[in-house]
Amino acid sequence: MPPVWNKTRTFDFASTRLDMQAMMAEECIDDPIAHPSEDDVRSMRRRVHRELIEAIENEGADVLDDPEEVRQRIKQILDEVANEQAHSVSPDARQRVALDVIAELTGAGPLAPLMLDPSISDILINGPKEVWVDRFGQLERSSVQFDDEPHLRRIVDRMVSAHGRRLDAASPMVDARLHDGSRLHAIIPPLCPRGTIVSIRRFAVKPFASEDLVSMGFLSEAMLTLLQLLVVARVNIVVSGSAATGKTTLLNTLSRFVPATERIVTIEETAELRFEHPHVIPLESRTSNAEGRGAVTLRGLVKNALRMRADRIVVGEVRGDEVFDMLQAMNVGHDGSLTTVHANSPEDVLSRLESLVMASDISMSANAVRRMIGSSIDVIVHLVRFRDGSRRIVSIREVLFKEDRWQTEEIFRFQSAGLNADGEIMGEHVTVSSGATILSRIEQQGFDISPLQTALSQAARQKATPADASVGSSHNG
Predict the structure, then answer these.
(1) Do 37 and 180 reside in the same domain of the chain?
(2) Which of 47, 146, 160, 409 is placed for a possible disulfide with 165 were both Cys, Cβ 3.0 to 4.6 Å?
(3) Is the pTM of this model over 0.90?
(4) 52 lies in which domain range?
(5) φ, ψ of residue 57 in degrees (nearest 5)
């Protein structure tokens, strides 16, 4: 059984930070003030942490449930350090040590300030002395460091063990969902000789509103209107793009358009989706235990979802043989389902899905696989992350299947106009075609498409160029 201090406490780090700052500001220090070095601060932090651990061993872990008790104990230990050194420790140093210790006890350690920063979307740890962050789409190295490799491992072990995962020689890779919804991936030697490598993908505390995405240039008003109509009309949509392009953000947005009377089952390896819908059942796969048993795959969850009376099935990302069951679900009464797939371009999406099916243990001919994909996928939405860090929908295409061939007709695209003086990508979303086929299908279901149809037709006439006349792309598979 792990030591009791390895348990993650339900501790409000943000409020404790404010309380600790106020407490330090109120202190009156008459003795000469010492400004300790980095080594001194680390030494003080280790001592405070060690003595608090001893208190936990003697009095039980409940000592951490009272923030005021923790603060008083930290202050008492720092006073003892000051008395031993015959001078006071500066309020800034006291505050830093206190907050560092609280962070150690709550599991985040030196990462706590980064985990509280809403402008950071990714935290990348390349060993104890190198921590990078993705801020507004740009990577930058932070000043955060760990004491050493054991310190880093201790923090990572605590973060993953609190969620039933482990990281050791028998299981040197781990994926975990943290309490705030962030996704953590870690890998250790011997798989990575450099040391412990950690990637934390963070998500906005408050999901983006649809209007926010329009104002950011992620998509246009017309595109948002079309996507809303597609979701309400139960059209099967695949969202594609490379890593960190905003696929999860778009799925969260699309979930708002699903009628409240429908039941959604989401399936993910590590739960990331945050649907704003009253009836969502989240399912999460599970890796095997130390004995190699107990694994639950995405494919198993998709099959299970078919027996859960789901109106729609959403697979966070298909990357293996679960794609076959997902396509089957889209064909047998689960219209309006959504999924994402990694692809470099919208033209590659259908071929990638075919490759995933053919690489599985499913015994089907290539033509049969193409027919299944052609009858399952209705619309492709492709996203790109540009070099300035911005993310945009660059293409919305409807999928047509004729004579054993795929054909995609582009409805919207992002037309780039180069960089401005600040190095930012310029451009606009333009209408390429009227989307007649998909809109006709929606109209047959009783939906009023006239406002959108008029807007699409007018925009297509105004902005179409000779190059746009041949917007379709065909695939032989």
Answers:
(1) no
(2) 160
(3) no
(4) 4-106
(5) -65, -35
